[in-house]
Amino acid sequence: MNIGSTIRTIRKRKNITIAQICEETGLSQGFMSQVETNKTSPSIATLESIAKSLKVPLAYLLLQQEERMNIVRKDERKTTTSGTEKLIVEHLSSTKNVRTMLVEIPPGASTGLAPHAHEGEEVHVVVKGTIYAEQGEDAAEFREGDSFGWNACTPHIVKNIGEEIALILIAVYTEGDQAHDYL
């Protein structure tokens, strides 16, 4: 854990000196220097005092880098294709357990030739177009603004039944950071 580096980054971004933190917290400058260079690990009570001085939640100081905000700019999205019908999948942002994608399905195309299953839970929002979704014995048509969710371990399929390209926002939750083909 690089708590010290995080503290130093926040302190510098906010133009706070080590002396100012020490004055507010009662800690010595030598100790704060060792904290910021990760040479010593402060207690939770000390971290709480430092966090208060920096005006950040204590929890933020304890986050691992991969747990922090994941920013993906529109022009930096990874784009892949999926299935025989080459659905266009734009990979939006993700966390350890949740991935979001924007999937473009051409008219008449589907997520596969037959229903398929995989680990995880999915939530879909139809951004544009008209689709048909089927999971086991459940099936329905969805239009722009409609949404649905399911446990993906039951075979499912999504088809574009409209005359235009369908655009679907999909969020997939899985335990742990396992990569899967969700379509």
TrEMBL record:
SUPFAM superfamilies: lambda repressor-like DNA-binding domains, RmlC-like cupins
Domain HTH cro/C1-type positions: 7-61
Pfam families (UniProt xref): Cupin_2 (PF07883), HTH_3 (PF01381)
Key word Electron transport present: no
Annotated CDD domains: cupin_XRE_C, HTH_XRE
Top-rank lineage group of the source organism: Bacteria
Record Gene3D superfamilies: Jelly Rolls, lambda repressor-like DNA-binding domains
UniProt signal peptide: none
Keyword Coiled coil recorded: no
Keyword list, A-Z: DNA-binding
The name this protein goes by in its record: Helix-turn-helix transcriptional regulator
Organism, scientific name: Paenibacillus terricola
